[in-house]
């Protein structure tokens, strides 16, 4: 309670001071989907420069809400330091796939739709024949590709066919992996890794046209 009262007192005394500096910090090293200039524009509440905006016209909770509503920002933390600096911590949204649609969009780490950025193009797998309403269906598979180092390194595309089965395209090899439905992910990935490891050892991976993981505990291959 004492801390709250002291804070309120200090805030009241500092109410008329001007902000000396705005410091924007991006949490974690991320690609620049939103930059410091864009954040500063969101912070400006009138026509003055950001460095001369009075504290009296800044309601910090409203500023945070405004930043959090930006389509490229996951969350923010805005606060005033004792020396008159406005400090802003920004965590950007992270795309894990790009959907090729009439209006292309990303899918982020939470499985939510994210618009493309004018500042930067993410190097993520391309997804085909998937609409916005099917994002929740494909998201577990995209998340698995993102979190598994082997798949993240090799998978460059995901295609959904008319039956709702998924096909994976690989960076180096021309074969397609028929993954089937977005279910039993761990088992399918484990089976594929075991097959891949053996095929690499036998030096015959380039001989295959398709590799199917649709059948339980099986890897069924078709040669060229």
Topology:
Blueprint: H1 2-13, E1 21-26, H2 36-43, H3 60-68, E2 73-80, E3 85-92, E4 95-100, E5 105-108, E6 113-114, E7 126-128, H4 135-147, H5 149-154, E8 155-160, E9 166-170, E10 176-180, H6 185-202, E11 208-212, E12 220-223
Parallel strand pairs: 1-3, 4-7, 7-8, 10-11
Antiparallel strand pairs: 2-3, 4-5, 5-6, 8-9, 9-10, 11-12
Mind explaining what this structure looks like?
The protein is of the alpha/beta class. The chain is built from six helices and twelve strands. The protein has helices at 2-13, 36-43, 60-68, 135-147, 149-154, 185-202; strands spanning 21-26, 73-80, 85-92, 95-100, 105-108, 113-114, 126-128, 155-160, 166-170, 176-180, 208-212, 220-223. The strands form two sheets. Strands 6-5-4-7-8-9-10-11-12 form a nine-stranded mixed beta sheet. It has a three-stranded mixed beta sheet with strand order 1-3-2. It is elongated, with a radius of gyration of 24 Å.
């Amino acid at each position: 309670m004492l801390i709250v009262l002291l804070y309120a007192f200090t805030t009241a005394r500092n109410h008329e001071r001007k902000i000396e500096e705005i410091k924007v910090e991006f949490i974690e090293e991320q690609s620049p989907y939103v930059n410091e200039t864009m954040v500063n524009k969101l912070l400006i509440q009138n026509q003055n420069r950001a460095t001369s905006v009075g504290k009296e016209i800044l309601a910090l909770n409203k500023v945070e809400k405004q930043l959090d509503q930006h389509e490229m920002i996951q969350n923010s933390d805005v606060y005033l330091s004792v020396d008159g600096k406005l400090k802003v911590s920004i965590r950007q949204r992270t795309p894990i796939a790009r959907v090729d649609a009439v209006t292309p969009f990303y899918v982020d780490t939470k499985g939510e739709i994210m618009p493309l950025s004018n500042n930067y193009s993410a190097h993520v797998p391309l997804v085909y024949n998937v609409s916005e309403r099917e994002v929740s269906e494909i998201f577990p598979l995209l998340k698995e590709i993102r979190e598994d180092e082997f798949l993240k390194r090799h998978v460059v595309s995901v295609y959904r066919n008319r039956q709702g089965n998924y096909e994976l395209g690989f960076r180096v090899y021309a074969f397609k992996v028929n993954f089937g439905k977005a279910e039993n992910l761990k088992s399918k990935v484990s089976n594929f890794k075991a097959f891949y490891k053996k095929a690499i050892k036998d030096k015959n991976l380039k001989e295959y046209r398709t590799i199917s993981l649709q059948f339980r505990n099986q890897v069924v291959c078709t040669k060229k």
